[in-house]
Design brief:
single chain, 256 residues, mainly alpha, 2 domains, 9 helices, globular
């Protein structure tokens, strides 16, 4: 069986799992999502095992697994209807297949040069941000205290940043620059999440703000690893961050 066939089979079975998920009781939603997330990890290992080893290539499993968790948790925040289920199901099916392909390109690129690596970087970057937004939105929707928001977002950001930086480095052993950049970025995201917990903004705005910070951190970190850390690049990323920050201030619902 070819890798592409494995990707198609895995994507279809996981999509069917999403379709069946709506028939379970609401009280079992977290157990069902956990089970589907675990199955994503199993399918990813099965489909990518030729390129995986007991080294940094295991980071290729991060995005598919987190994507399933993010879409699954976000799905339960939506109204229960066919109109909401179909777009989510289509988004998930396309996204998980794209992530299997992307992760495969990363693992293959650790051994030899591959022409599709640039496209994989673009897809991986976009789906990293989408996954982060869905997970951040879920955390803030739980309406818990600032400590949970801070710790939860940092724990989500760290492996996603680690994977994002490693996708540029693509070494079998994690370099210090990759590890420290991911750790520092996760701390920044966690600290901002703590601040936003006290800010009078809606959950989507808070999630979008955190995702934008992740965008800036990931983009600048990847540019540095690619040795493209130019003044123009820095300005472009910080301009996006500034626009979102101003939007956050404008949408804040201050009392009085």
């Amino acid at each position: 069986m070819t890798k592409r066939q494995k990707f198609v089979i895995s994507s279809l079975l996981l999509s069917c799992g999403f379709l069946l998920m709506q028939f379970f009781a609401i009280g079992l939603r977290y157990q069902v999502i956990s089970g589907l997330t675990f199955m994503t990890l199993v399918f990813a290992v099965w489909a990518l095992r030729d390129g995986l080893g007991r080294n940094a290539t295991l980071l290729g499993l991060v995005l598919p697994t987190f994507f399933t968790a993010g879409v699954g948790l976000f799905y339960f925040l939506l109204p229960a209807s066919v109109l909401s289920a179909i777009p989510v199901l289509v988004l998930y099916a396309i996204g998980i297949y794209a992530l299997f392909l992307t992760s495969n390109i990363y693992t293959v690129a650790t051994l030899r040069t591959i022409a599709l690596l640039r496209a994989a970087h673009a897809v991986g970057f976009l789906l990293t941000l989408l996954t982060a937004f869905l997970l951040f939105d879920t955390i803030f929707s739980l309406k818990l205290n600032f400590g949970f928001n801070s710790l939860g977002t940092a724990l989500i950001a760290f492996p996603m940043l680690l994977q994002g930086f490693w996708s540029i480095d693509l070494e079998h052993k994690l370099g210090k620059d990759v590890l420290y950049s991911a750790l520092g970025g996760a701390v920044v995201v966690g600290e901002l999440a703590m601040i936003l917990s006290f800010w009078p903004i809606t959950v989507p705005v808070a999630s979008l703000t955190l995702t934008t910070v992740l965008y800036v951190v990931l983009g600048l970190g990847q540019a540095k690893l690619q040795q493209r850390f130019f003044a123009r690049t820095i300005r472009e990323y910080f301009l996006v961050g500034a626009v979102v920050l101003l939007t956050m201030f404008a949408t804040a619902r201050w009392a009085g």
